[in-house]
Please model this.
Amino acid sequence: MNEFSFKGILQADGWRENVTITTNTDGEIIDIVDAQNHSTCNGYALPGFQNAHSHAFQYAMAGLAELHSTNKKRNDFWSWRQSMYALALSLEPEQMEAIAAMLYQEMLRHGYTHVAEFHYVHHDKNGRHYSNKAALSERIARAAHKAGIKLTIIPIYYEQGGFGKPAQNEQKRFLSKSIDDYLDLFEAVQKMSKNYSSCDVGLGIHSMRGVSLENIIKTSHYKKRDTPFHIHISEQLQEVKDCFEYTGLRPAEWLDKNINLNSDFHLVHATHLTPNEITSIAKSKANVVLCPSTESNLGDGIFPMASFLNQGGSWSIGTDSHIGLNPFEELRILDYGQRLTTHSRNTFGNEYSGNNGALAIQSALVNGRKAMGKTQKEFFKIGSSFDALVITDQHPMIQVTGKQHLTNTIVYASDQTMVMGTIVNGDWKIKDNKAPNKSIEKNFISTMMELSSRI
Model:
């Protein structure tokens, strides 16, 4: 049993001051009470963030795609993708684990306590199955376990190179030969996950261009209730154009007409939507997963947030290619992109309090949990695990800020010096901005030196 005393904890209805949280040996909250001795209270606890979209291996190339050619050829998502393919083809299983462990430790340092891993590198360098089909998924699970972050692993179905097109050679590590082949993989990952605490499993389709339309429908029928289902959609204008030429419908239109969308579905990016598509997604209660730092870095475009929220749409955040890892930065990029296009400063609406930061955290948290397969709406709740990002009360800016402005100060004006640490299952995984597992850093450095891609 552990006790944690804070100057404040953030709940859905605002800050509750001077609180002691008690946990049992499993890290579950068994009591939330007023602190008896205020002098022992330190820091402000926010619920841990959910990272709803991650490609762990891509952390190895963060920042490496910014040396652009001097010729007139445009550098865009499709040229970036070739660099990503080269990395995916080069990695050994132990290298993938080392990269993922380093990434997950850094996620924890920034306040993420749960990650949805959109995992599509399944096979060896020749495109053959490992004897254990879940071998690379298990590398991801081991990395998460080492770092101490909760994991929802989503083994991704990928079978073709575009709408009606065969797969490219560069995609051979990703591919399932048939839907039965993919479902065998999915079931192997489910079985593997039982060996790891805090590891859940979701279903996923890489994209409409990556799987035949017939098999997208079949996979959606296979999905059981409350299992999260993730898919990239409408990220690039070329993708939308290709989809329309092949099907006569735009991607979100096709999904609406052919898939029984509901709150279990998580549409990643959904950048390019028509008004009718916005309405259909919002009406279906499907969630969009926005990755603002990656979407900005790749030049994807800006999601139509104002119209989506006006129709009751739900969204969460992820870090995708991990060019950024700070959840507050994701929220700021998301917000400021909207302000630049709408010329309005209340991006997240005036519902409840009109408090921008509080509304952003509420959506990222509740819908992020849905992306993990969880449905808890309360921030901190007796009977749930205690997962928190703790902001120091010693930072000068925090010391002089009252609770009316505290959430927005943290969301809009914080940096890493304000982070005291991160708690998962009632255990400090990061404290004083330092990670205790130095072997993770050593293995990452060794791996990157072997790859020599960052030199």
